[in-house]
Amino acid sequence: MSEELLINISPMESRVAVLDNGILGEIYIERHHKLGLVGNIYLGTVVRVLPGMQAAFVDIGQSRTAFLHVNDMQREPRPVVDNKDKASANSLQGSDAQNNNTESDKDKTILETSDGVDFTAPMVTTQTTEVVPVSKTLIQHRLYESQRILVQVTKDQLGSKGARLTTNISLPSRYLVYLPSSDHIGISQRIDGEEERTRLKTELSNLMQTVNLKGGLIARTAAERVPVDKLEEDIYYLLQLWRTICARRQEINHHQSSELIYQELSLPLRSIRDLVHADTEKVIIDNTEVYEQVRYFAKEFVPFVYDRIVHYTAEQSLFDVSRVEDDLRDALKRRVDLKSGGYLIIDQTEAMTTIDVNTGSFVGGRSLEDTVYKTNLEATHAIARQLRLRNLGGIIILDFIDMLEQQHKDDVLESLQAQLTQDYAKTKITQVSELGLIEMTRKRTRESLGQQLCEPCSTCQGRGFVKTAETVCFEIFREIMRCARTYNSPKKFTVVAHAAVIDLLLTSESDTVADLEYLLGRVITFDVENLYTQEQYDIVLD
Predict the structure, then answer these.
(1) Structural domains in the chain plus CATH codes
(2) pLDDT tens, position by position, 244-266
(3) How many Cβ atoms from other residues are within 10 Å of residue 396's Cβ?
């Protein structure tokens, strides 16, 4: 599979498009006046502690306070107790068990990154002499209002929700992720070979001892088959970065306001660090200044891609030449057409996203079951692409067309799983239900494409539909009768409304208007207001 990165820079925004074999697979957009927060590190101020939610709101200097859950906080050091105190410690744990049902799993923690990394801390055996009093794990015993705390953003502000925070700081480089508050070595799940995983773990362990690095490391997917000297360079870079952050924290610790300590790289540089790999054939940039910045960055951190960076200087827009603009417009539509004639309907709501598969004009060949099967198989490819392109996250319900044969259901599920392996975001899917539904989740760290580029319709307020002209006419009739009962003085009513509503009142509903005039003994006149939406109207009393 060949891949290209297109980087488009304008005075208003930066955009990065990932093309898979010439087809738009992913799009990243960063508005210069509204930079993303993910990866930024702040010295925040605790505004409010919520024991009932085991969470806290933290001021990081943004328009909304950010959210910190106790599960996203680094662990308290475990005090070691003598054997003679073990019985009393166990008694304490037992008495608090009812207040914390999740404590039985407190010694097993899965750490994850966008590379799909996971590693598990060792389980505490029955022979251990370490105990953590339950009270030490409650957020009200760990945070207090006005406390200064070092936090990192893991999710941008989404809609009305503030950013999501963690105290488990992670610093990514090209090949590694440094975890100052951990002490484990993890390997990306995308690195399959057991021999390579063992090599990386051994070499990272040796390097940590050599440089006396305190903390943990994760080998990213790009670290596969990377020589040890490159890994060592990354470690020194991350160590120096962490020292800079610590020094900056000490420098501003006496300030009263929340402060930004470390800002994540700009989108073009971030895309070079995170998105390029061996299959990336070209990185095409249409801005001279950014082109020079990217080349300098690539020479230092990603040298293999240095010669593949191209400066685009043609008159026609880079995104127009590659049809990215057209694909972007299509990605904002509800309907996605399939080559066979079938189509998808994608609806995104606050709670979840639903994707409905339809056969459309595709009539297939041998039988209805065969038609449905082929449409569903084709839909798995389109669904996986749309999830990445639109950056849909959270709970997603896939409504495939009902299939009778179990083998067909298994094939569709297997095809979907295969397509999702190309997705950088972590996904989890269930089996096909009796209703033909597949439930899945996709990790969400930033706004979807629709949330980034669109806003709720001013006419329908995000409902996706408006009242019919007939419905509005009936509302007007009821409002006129209410006004007539409430006010005795008016001799005339003037209805000010949208042209479509006025047309209906003067044609199809003219008999009703005449009956109402006779019943109320008052004249009703009409006035068109072109600035009104179809649902807006006013009743003027004369």
Answers:
(1) 3-34+265-325 (3.30.420.60), 334-453 (3.40.630), 469-541 (3.40.1260.20)
(2) 999 888 888 777 777 899 988 89
(3) 21
